[in-house]
Amino acid sequence: MNKTLLGYVPDASFIYLVHPTIKVLFLLVVSLFPMFISAVEWNVGLMVGLMALTVASRVNMRTLKIYIPVAVSMGMIILLSYTVLGGRHPDYQVITRIFGFPLYWERIRDALVVYFRILPMILTMVFFLSTTREREIIAALRAVRTPFVVTYVLAMSMRAAGMVMEDFRIVRQAEQARGFDSKNKPLPYKIRKYVMYMVPLFALSLRRSEEFTNALVARGYSFRSKVKRPDYILSRYRFAWWDGALGVVIAALFALLLVARYRFGRFTVEDSVLLRYLHTILIPGGGA
Amino acid sequence: MANNGNGRSVWKVEEGERRSVGVIHIVITALLIGVGFVVGAFGSISFPLGFGVNFFWTGIVVQQVGPIWFGAWGVIAGTIFPFFSNAIAGTPFYVSLAYIPANFVQALLPAWAFKKFNCDPRMKSGKDYGVLLLAMVVSSAFGALYSPLVVLRGFGLLTTESLPLFIWGWFGGNVVAGLVFNFILLKALSGVVIKTPAFVKRWWS
Amino acid sequence: MSSPAIQVTDYSWKYLHSTTRAIKNIELIVQPGECLGLIGSNGSGKTTLCNSIDGLIPGQYHGIKEGRVEVFGTEVEEYRRGELQRTVGLVFSDPEAQFTAMTVEDELVFGMENLGLSISEINRRLEWVCDLADLSPLLDKPPYEISGGQKQRVALAAMLAMQPRVLILDEPTAMLDPVSRERVFAVLARLRKEREITMILIEHSLEHIIPLADRMVLLSNGRKLHEAPTRTFFSDLSLLRQEGIHLPGAVGFSGYLRESGATTDEPAISVEEAAQQARNLRGAAKGELS
Predict the structure, then answer these.
(1) pTM of this prediction?
(2) What is the mean pLDDT of residues C160-178?
(3) Are C167 and C199 in contact (CB under 8 A)?
(4) How many domains does chain B fold into?
(5) Same structural domain for residues C83 and C151?
(6) Band of the pLDDT at A182, cuts 50, 70, 90?
């Protein structure tokens, strides 16, 4: 098992055959896809594809549970934003009225478009986080000649985040050992408790900064050094022919998407079979 | 007057005092990003309003106290870490990226105000509290207006009618969390931080 | 004649916000290839002295320095940025605090990259330290997810991979269980056998330091109280007891025999030597009786 940013993936996963640079390219480009797609079914298709990739990469799907409340809460917020908080529009088509408040077809349609745009964007991020190791991000950045100090700060930040979580656990256990527990307690109590965590967490980090610095200096690190650093990490990752092919496929798909959208007017709301079908159900006999 | 106990400002570089950028500043930046990542993600997951906007954003403490102590290094960290904490909390990549200007201003303004008005991070006078409060309010107001208006509308995620909810959500989420944490943290730890080589008197050292 | 590996001359150091000096007028010479054991209670100035030799003081700390600290004939402050650390390697007591990479392999490689070594040389040294410290199975693991003993072996190996001429170990086994401690000292013993390396070893467990050290120094309250070749160092145990130094059983037993006048032999510094002294005494007693 290898630890990724968001869980563990077995050694045998095909995902390790992909060069880190291609993974980052995937994140950057595929995250853009939904922004050019309004037709809901295409974004649903993208989600299915992403989920399939996640499963095929042998990601432990249980680690992704934390995103269910996020997705639900975002859905609720978008729905509220486009319905209750959506204002009154006499020119829109009313589906029904709830407590006298009109529910417009255009608003529901827009909410669906926005929601199914957001979900694949989140899924792309989740796929990236669950299949990428911290080390691969560094390798990808170094591969594109990012200055060492930048990649190193990033690497240390990721390391620091792990340490802070560990410190957080220790501080919490110490508090609980002294009979301090916030389970089933009201929110103000939890916030007060959080204040009590924050001061020791910061104090620990400050102490760590000194230890970290000493460790770096003791191993000859100086960000003003003129020594040319060999990129050892890159020697551990080979750019294979399939990486090149994947890069081309990702770029070509994006180019195709843009052409289809802006040259041929595809992937638009009007182009959506699902939305047209929904419209016929919700507004029987109504024009689109 | 912010003084170091000898009637001198904590921000004033003494005659003959050697101050330079060191490895410790790089380390502090990384640690602040790390702390901010965890603390910010906690806020984003625990009190979400949506798209990285929260009712109670705990990350504000790292974003605003860090730059007061560590100058530009804190500003860099305060600008960068929300990108990561939002990402892990389920905010799309490009939305997180677009928040950067708001986070930059929120990180910069309190630190700038403390230096400009010669306030003491150990919070020794009413002026220190007043300036911090004002800086928190103004910087959060900028973030609250910029992000929902420019970012969320730009991405087409919100209706115009729902903007006030997000504007007040962002503003309140930052200011309330800042009120709870910033003062306590500055009061509790500034005395120690000032004595460390990581403390930044000017902007970089 | 070549210059000593380390020469400390009338050296004092006071941290900026402290009222007293952490190190007071220390004089110390360590010859190339020598192993020096540095002992003393907490706060005696051991770590400050080591940090001074590695250039962390005054480089990373604010304070007042008096006197000179030279490494191979050059004052530490006169070395260029990062240069001194090619010569002096420092291993800290808390291995976790010195990890800055995300895999053991990257951790081991980091220092070598700073030296600007070629990839082939890095691979060669990596193989060597992995063999020396038995780390090959751990290369792909995050350094903070391995056991305490493994962590310290990684920290030690990371420093050894840089092949410094001077190696300083600041309580390298303070956080380890007895088995892990044995393994770390086994690595150090093998290192001393295979390479001529100058070593300064700070350690509370004297039974581990004694077999390695050529000479011992006792620090107390920032001052050097006692210095002698290892065996001679234990001739007078009263000072060590007074300073709260916990003596190994063999040394204490031998000291007791000497203090009680039962033997005039040299101090025993190992269990085997103490046992031999006991056998000698029994033999002498039998001889007297017969």
Answers:
(1) 0.81
(2) 87
(3) yes
(4) 1
(5) yes
(6) low
Residue B169 DSSP label: H
Both A229 and A251 in one domain: the answer is no
Q: Give the pLDDT score at A288.
A: 47
* Rounded average pLDDT over B75-97: 85
DSSP element (H, E) containing A25: helix A20-30
**How many CA within 13 A on the CB side of residue A130?**
27
> Which domain covers residue C263, as residue numbers?
248-290
* C200 touches C40 (CB < 8 A): no
Q: How far apart are CA C186 and CA C194, in angstroms?
A: 12
Would B11 be classed as within a structural domain? no
Show residues of chain B in contact with A217, CB under 8 Å: 23
A51/B contact by beta carbon, under 8 A: no
Supply the mean pLDDT for chain B. 86
pLDDT in tens, A96-141: 888 888 889 998 998 899 889 889 988 998 899 889 988 898 899 9
Instruction: Kindly report, residue by residue over A276-286, the tens digit of the pLDDT.
Output: 999 999 887 66
Q: How far is CA A197 from CA A169, A190, B40, in A?
A: 10, 11, 14
User: Does residue B168 fall inside a structural domain?
Assistant: yes
Read off the tokens for A254: 């994006």
Q: How many domains in chain C?
A: 2
Strand-pairing partners, residue B53, are: B50
Same-domain check for residues A174 and A256: no
| CA dist., res. C140 & res. C152, Å (int) | 16
Q: How many domains, in total, are found in chain A?
A: 2
- Tokens 């105000």 belong to B113
Residues of B whose CB is below 8 A from A74? 48, 50-51, 90
CA count, 13 A, side-chain hemisphere, B82: 36
Sequence-ordered alpha helix ranges (H) in A31-93: 40-56, 67-82
Residues in chain C whose beta carbon is closer than 8 A to a beta carbon of chain A? 51, 54-56, 59-60, 81-82, 85-86, 89-90, 92, 94, 97-103, 105-106, 109-119, 122, 140, 142, 144-145, 158-159, 162
Average pLDDT over residues A39-58: 94
Domain match, A213 and A98 both: no
Q: Which two tokens stand for residue A33?
A: 């896809």
Query: How far is A190 from chain C, CA to nearest CA, in Å?
Result: 30
Mean of the per-residue pLDDT values for chain A?
85
Lowest mean pLDDT across B86-90, C29-33, C159-163: B86-90
Does residue A288 contact residue A276 with C-beta atoms inside 8 Å?
yes
Residue B4 predicted with pLDDT over 70 = no
Decide if B130 is inside a domain.
yes
Whether C217 maps to a domain, the answer reads yes
Residues C208 and C89 both lie in one domain: yes
Same domain, A128 and A246: yes
Q: What is the mean pLDDT of residues A22-31?
A: 93
**Does residue B201 sit within a domain?**
no
Let me know if residue C1 belongs to a domain. no
Domain that holds residue A154: 147-233
- For residue B78, the distance in angstroms to the closest alpha carbon of chain C comes to 21
Residue A274 lies in a domain: yes
* B39-73: pLDDT as tens digits: 888 776 666 666 667 777 889 999 999 999 999 99
Q: Note the pLDDT of residue A124.
A: 92
Cross-strand partners of C13:
C23, C65
What is the rounded CA–CA span in Å between residue A216 and residue C101? 11
Cα distances (angstroms) measured from residue C48 to each of C21, C42, C218: 10, 11, 14
The helices-and-strands tally (H runs, E runs) of chain B is 7, 2
